[in-house]
Amino acid sequence: MAKTARAAAVQMLDAVLGEGALLSQVEGMLAHLAPADRARAQRLAMQALRHLEQADRVLKPFIRKAPPLTVLNTLRLAVVELVGGEAAYGVVNEAVSLTRSDRHHGALSGLVNAVLRKVAALEAPFAKLPPQRMPYWLRKPLVDTYGREVVSAIEAVQAQPAPVDLTLRPGRMVEIAGATALPGGSLRLPAGVQVSALPGYDSGDWWVQDAAAAMAAPMLQVEPGERVLDLCAAPGGKTLQLAAAGAQVTALDVNEVRLHRLAENLARTGLEAEVIVADALDWVPDAPFDAILLDAPCSATGTIRRHPDLPFVKDGREVEELVALQAALLDRALDWLRPGGRLVYCTCSLLPEEGEAQIAAALSRHPDLRLDPVLPPGADPAWQTPEGALRLRPDYWAPQGGMDGFFMARLTR
Ligand SMILES: C[S@@+](CC[C@H](N)C(=O)[O-])C[C@H]1O[C@@H](n2cnc3c(N)ncnc32)[C@H](O)[C@@H]1O
């Protein structure tokens, strides 16, 4: 069991890079740490993953033969910490003692010491290195879609820790020191703030939700009392927005664990929704809905700034299956709309097959379907596609910290 935040961060890196585990799947290995150390371990592991390529380039001249993965990860983490301005003495000492205490690789502590002392003597070792690139399977289609310059701008945003965005509950007043108001109405706070300590947490005046993600629900323009289905709802940021707008919300998701978080969020905010655990491919509603939000499962390639482990774990093989699932969910959901009802389809993907092409295919499968151009508050008209959908990219609002990548489209029939 890792005793320190650094040791736990190395264990997490070993799991991601050695076993292909997502950080969210190995959070359990931090359970024994105090909350502050838990948060620090997570922060360190994520920062190392954001700069792995640069760390390896800095280490290369000092290492003749690649050491075992856990020793390499100890070195990588130490390099990233040194570049981040941590005191060299502490970083080097802890990396050395971590290696020394390793039953299998203790003999390599001398190497770790020698290498890190050389790295510590370098001046700004990352300064001339470009931001870490996305893997080829993802970078190639993104370059083909958006061009090289945009992809580099996205990578520059992904190199930074993501800020914390709060969606405010309409009608509530809240003042949070250090927060910046964003054009859509979200509040932005620096990365790493402890949200449960902020004013308005206990009273449910806001909830954590990326500013781009917060643009989907307003596109439905729900009226108080309307029957609205939030399909694929957990953990529920969009459910809360719809309920706060006065809709009568049914929130459905197949994942019971994630739905617990939705239930907690409802309890904290005092908002109401009917919560259903079901597979949307089997479930059938009792009556049609006025509006449906389908936030479909996807490659999540728009969220790499929040999930830097994703490029190291995924290889794009699951995209085809996801595209088929999205189409199946979309077709079912369209059948549950009342005549004249509206549906917002969204994914946090940068890949056109999960966005623009998915909607083009739906329009050709359903001749009575129309794409209804709507611009949610805060969205720049330049972000609208020629067809009238919304394409949000991580490099938008880059000086303020960017946003998650999303595709959103409103359909009516
Ligand atoms: C992008 S996430 C939803 C995020 C959520 N809308 C929010 O704003 O917090 C996609 C969700 O789809 C759910 N899901 C995947 N396949 C499903 C299915 N067949 N039926 C219902 N939910 C499904 C996943 O459990 C996951 O919670």
Automatic annotation (TrEMBL):
Q: What is this protein called?
A: 16S rRNA methyltransferase
Quick one: which residues bind S-adenosyl-L-methionine?
C232, A233, A234, P235, G236, G237, K238, D253, D279, D295
Which keywords does this Swiss-Prot/TrEMBL entry list? Answer: Methyltransferase, RNA-binding, S-adenosyl-L-methionine, Transferase
Q: Which residues form the signal peptide?
A: none
Write down the SUPFAM superfamilies for this protein, in alphabetical order.
Answer: NusB-like, S-adenosyl-L-methionine-dependent methyltransferases
Residues forming the SAM-dependent MTase RsmB/NOP-type domain are: 126-413
Q: Which family does it belong to?
A: Belongs to the class I-like SAM-binding methyltransferase superfamily. RsmB/NOP family.
Superkingdom of this entry's organism? Bacteria
- Record's Gene3D superfamilies? NusB-like, Vaccinia Virus protein VP39
MF annotations from Gene Ontology: RNA binding; RNA methyltransferase activity
Which residues are the active-site ones?
C348 (nucleophile)
Pfam families assigned: Methyltr_RsmB-F, NusB
A Gene Ontology biological process in which this protein takes part is:
regulation of DNA-templated transcription
